[in-house]
Design brief:
about 300 residues; alpha/beta; Rossmann fold; UDP-galactose 4-epimerase, domain 1; 8-stranded parallel sheet; 3-stranded mixed sheet; 12 helices; 14 strands; NmrA-like_oxidored; NmrA-like domain-containing protein; NADP; NAD(P)-bd_dom_sf
Length: about 300
């Protein structure tokens, strides 16, 4: 007999969504509907073969949400600023004089607003889980106002709170920590081997400032499931380890046997050339984390040890 509980997961073929699908497919008490723009793609077909219902929806077309959300008990909503920013098809979208990352942030917020509006109309919905991030502009009191990939999500969260109080009453927020996969796939943060053989984690982060580190493809599902077992209204920062860059480098040395170190570059410097708008955003990003922490000291944030 089919379970009566249905979790609808956006970004089902991505890191966060894929991890959630993995966890809930193992729970016979849940049916899983994975949402993707391309149900015929290889990853989507693999999900279907494992028992997930795979359905098309597109964040750029809010009309696709109603059938995708039909009958949902829980909706997990996630967006992708960096996918928007890096898509070559979007390079000419900004208005004259508008930086691409600012356009991408506005677009992401618009996508999430459409999603929130659609979720508010689902009569069966018991919990809405929004993947969001705290606002550096807000928590730094305007000092760091260019961390668009954080602020864009926070603005959509504010919209949900202010415009849909009934939906907000059954909303939980999941804040993903800093993806460990950045050290594998992102050339800006990928470790470098120095001429003396030492592996260097080079960046603008204070080596002694602790941050939340997340393996999104493994950790998101268990954390979101634990969040779902809590009452609505929780704002969870998701991570597997709370470490400084120096401690992370030490852990890397212990795991691999290769000597490593965390190197902090002066503010405004990068070991790679960056587009001006991205350099400005990342400079504010690292500076905000160094001064105010990853989530800016938001007092509503809870940590994984606070959930079951």
């Amino acid at each position: 007999m089919l379970s009566s509980k249905l979790i609808v997961v956006l970004g089902a073929t991505g890191n966060q969504g894929g991890s959630i699908v993995d966890v809930f497919l193992e729970d016979p008490g849940w049916r899983v509907r994975g949402i993707t723009r391309n149900p015929s793609g290889g990853k989507a077909r693999a999900l279907a073969a494992r028992g997930a219902e795979v359905v098309h929806a597109d964040l750029d077309n809010p009309a696709t949400f109603a059938p995708a959300f039909e009958g949902a008990t829980v909706i997990f909503a996630v967006s992708d600023f960096w996918g928007i920013y890096a898509d070559p098809a979007n390079k000419d979208q900004p208005k004259p004089g508008q930086p691409l990352n600012l356009w991408a942030a506005d677009h992401e917020t618009h996508q999430l607003i459409g999603l929130v509006d659609a979720a508010s109309k689902v009569p069966t919905l018991e919990r809405f889980i929004l993947s969001s991030l705290s606002s550096p502009t807000k928590w730094s009191k305007g000092k760091y106002s260019h961390v668009y990939h954080f602020d864009s999500k926070a603005e959509a969260e504010d919209y949900a709170r202010e415009s849909h109080p009934s939906l907000w009453a059954k909303t939980s927020v999941f804040q993903a920590g800093y993806f460990l996969s950045n050290f594998v796939s992102n050339p800006i943060t990928k470790p470098q081997r120095a001429s003396n053989g030492i592996i260097q984690f080079i960046g603008n982060l204070d080596p002694d400032n602790k941050l939340p580190w997340l393996a999104a493809e493994e950790d998101t599902g268990p954390l979101v499931k634990a969040l779902l077992e809590e009452p609505a209204g929780k704002n969870l920062i998701g991570y597997r380890a709370w470490l400084s860059p120096k401690e992370l480098a030490d852990a890397f040395t212990k795991a691999t046997g290769m000597k490593s170190e965390a190197i902090m570059l002066p503010k405004g410097q990068s070991h790679l050339p960056l587009p001006p708008e991205l350099a400005e955003e990342l400079d504010d990003n690292w500076s905000h984390w160094n001064e105010f922490g990853y989530y800016g000291g938001d007092p509503t944030v809870i940590h994984p040890e606070s959930v079951h």
